Amino acid sequence: MMLGPSYNHTMETPATFFLVGIPGLQSSHLWLAISLSVMYTIGLFGNTLIMTIIWMDSTLQEPMYCFLCVLATVDIVMAFSVVPKMVSIFSSGDNSISFNACFTQMYFVHVATAVETGLLLAMAFDRYVAICKPLHYRRILTPQVMLGMSVAIIIRAVIFMTPLSWMVSHLPFCGSNVVLHSYCEHIAVAKLACADPMPSCLYSLIGSSIIVGSDVVFIAASYNQIIWIVFGLSSSNAWLKALSTCSSHVGVMALYYLPGMASIYVAWLGENIVPLHTQVLLADLYLVIPTTLNPIIYGLRTKQIRKLSWSLLMHCLFDHFNLGSRTQNLFRR
Questions:
Q1: Are 199 and 167 spatial neighbours (Cβ–Cβ below 8 Å)?
Q2: Which of 69, 137, 261, 307 has most Cβ atoms within 10 angstroms of its Cβ?
């Protein structure tokens, strides 16, 4: 596989970067391409299905489902930003990416991850209000409040992540243009700079820790209150039902936060402690696995979405079957 020239000693910014893929696992690239393609297809189909169901069914216009619809949109944006290029690298060796495309990809990944953690916080707040203050649910989570929360989440992501992408894109790149990663991951690109990348790396670490840390604290506080209320219920069926409504959200949070923070801090530990291929693989899976499993978890755990998904799929299949039968009969005539 050609990686392009190793070094470019001119002081000009390289027009193209070359993504290695997963260093040390080149022999497994084809299997990785197949796996990523399957996960990408499942994630794209599942998230699109959830968005369609929530958009079409008027009974699902509650705050939780609206946040879920936005989450599905963010998952699609995140996967679309990285997976097609990763599959291209693993399957055909097409590993070149332009300078502008590289930093555009980096920016969308950063903003999407920051928006996603904000949405998980908003969904935790929704569960807190629904279980701890059920009589005031409609009064607290009005459409105006939901819109304000969504806008605040997006603004926070843009404010935090725009300076990071600006800092990295304005570093001088006068040496190697070979990125030891399968997408334009921030630290992997910053290491290629001829100047000290530490300011941008520190900004990334501190900014991510502040955003994720604050969100996790508020989420934990919300669920602490939920647990106290739930186990204070007299009926065992009532607290089982309440816990069931929260279990899917907890599962999604575990899928997002655990590999996400592991990916950030593992990159800081360096190759001497954690092998490079492990770092890259963890970063790749962190972007792909939540996108793939989020719609499955919500689809399986949410009875209403599960029933509507099945009905919609059956409707589409029968319509397709009936159309095929009518076409065959037409040709027989």
A1: yes
A2: 69
Could you tell me the two tokens for 89? 């690298």
* Residue whose pair of structure tokens reads 């939540």 in the numeric block: 290
- pLDDT one-digit tens code per residue, 193-203: 888 888 888 88
Beta bridge partners of 18: 96, 178
Locate all alpha helices (DSSP H) within 26-98, ordered by sequence.
Answer: 29-56, 63-92
User: Which token pair is 132?
Assistant: 């701890």
For the question of whether the overall pTM of this predicted structure is more than 0.70, the answer is: yes
Q: Are residues 34 and 292 in contact, defined by beta-carbon separation less than 8 angstroms?
A: no
Domains and CATH numbers, the chain: 16-316 (1.20.1070.10)
Each residue of 125-184: pLDDT tens digit? 988 898 888 888 888 888 888 889 999 999 999 999 999 889 988 888 887 888 888 899
Would you list the DSSP string of 179-218? ESSSS--HHHHHTT-SS--HHHHHHHHHHHHHHHHHHHHH
Tokens of 296: 């499955």
